[in-house]
User: Fold this.
Amino acid sequence: MARLHLDKLGAKLTTLSQEQADYIGVAVDGPYKPEHYRY
Assistant:
């Protein structure tokens, strides 16, 4: 839902490339934080 609002704000959301995901050790589609991470 937030993606729909970004256009109206003039913001552009990009996604990770496979190369970037491999470099930081996450999947392209997430999750981006380890399971043990707590807010």
Q: What stands out?
A: DSSP finds two helices and no strands in the chain. The chain has a mean pLDDT of 87.
